[in-house]
C-alpha cells in the first residue's frame, strides 16, 4: 500500500467520523427542541392548575432520555405523526415522564405528565 493511499484512507475515515457525529448531533438537537415544545405545550395546557404550573416551570428535560417514535397514522379520526417521551426532573427532585402526541413535528396535540415517587 502506498503512502498516498494511506493518507487518503486516513482522511476519508476522519471525514466520515466527523460527518456522522455532526449528523447525529443535528438529530439530537432536533429531539431536544421537540421535547422543549412538548414541555411548553404542557405549560399552556396546565396553566389553570397552579400546582402543576409550579412543577412544570421548574422542570428540566433529561436530554439523554428523549425518545421520538414516528407513528404517522390516524388515532381514531385524528392523525398523529409522532410520539415523544422524555424524563424530567426539577429543583425539588421530583422526577417524572412527559408524553406528547404531535400532529406534525411542530404541533403538539396531547400532553401527559406522570410523576415518579
From TrEMBL:
<keyword id="KW-0732">Signal</keyword>
<protein>
    <recommendedName>
        <fullName>DUF1318 domain-containing protein</fullName>
    </recommendedName>
</protein>
<feature type="signal peptide">
    <location>
        <begin position="1"/>
        <end position="29"/>
    </location>
</feature>
Amino acid at each position: 500500500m502506498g503512502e498516498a493511499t494511506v493518507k487518503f484512507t486516513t482522511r476519508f475515515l476522519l471525514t466520515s467520523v466527523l460527518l456522522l457525529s455532526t449528523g447525529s448531533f443535528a438529530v439530537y438537537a432536533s429531539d431536544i427542541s421537540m421535547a422543549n415544545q412538548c414541555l411548553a405545550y404542557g405549560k399552556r395546557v396546565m396553566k389553570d392548575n397552579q400546582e402543576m404550573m409550579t412543577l412544570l416551570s421548574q422542570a428540566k428535560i433529561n436530554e439523554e432520555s428523549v425518545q421520538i417514535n414516528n407513528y404517522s397514522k390516524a388515532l381514531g379520526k385524528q392523525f398523529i405523526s409522532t410520539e415523544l417521551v422524555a424524563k424530567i426532573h426539577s429543583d425539588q427532585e421530583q422526577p417524572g415522564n412527559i408524553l406528547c402526541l404531535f400532529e406534525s413535528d411542530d404541533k403538539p396535540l396531547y400532553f401527559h405528565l406522570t410523576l415518579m415517587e
